[in-house]
Amino acid sequence: MDLVTALARARSPEEPGPDTPAGPAVRAWPGPPRPLPRAGPGELDLPALLRLSLAASDRAGRLRPTPSAGALHPVDARLVVGTGCPLPPGRYGYDPLRHRVHYLGPGPGDAPPGATVELSVTPRRTVSHYGHRAWPLMLLDTGHAAAALWLAARALGADPLAPGLVLSLFNH
Hints:
By secondary structure, the protein is α+β, with helices and mostly antiparallel strands. It has one domain: NADH Oxidase, CATH 3.40.109.10. Helix content is 27%, strand content 19%. Helix 2 crosses helix 4 and helix 3 crosses helix 4. It is elongated, with a radius of gyration of 17 Å. The protein starts with a helix and ends with a strand.
């Protein structure tokens, strides 16, 4: 089903089906979790950026800084880290429940300084409760996460439009 058809169906009077299991609240990133080191002078404060924008306030995943339909938080974050960050350059998966990252491998050789935050969606989390009405809600959740990242970057004195922080959106 294409997006236009899915969005039209989401706005139809058709009732969603019964709830199904939402699955894990956090994507199962490979490898052991790593703490986010403190930022040094002149570095992007990546730990604070993620804490202010995407981190869960409790171990159950509730009360994240970004609103989410049904508190299901389908948005996941991958980081492409360049120079000027407290983490070594590479690709990382972010765990918002533990405020940790998982090393996924080397980043591209042309990674810009700072961090690129790539947002993806795990549809099952929202579809589990909202069924065919999930698409608009997932788009809203992604927009809220992007806005939270932008606002957190501004609050920390970073320019979210400069090469120090770039937001890229994709669906995996």
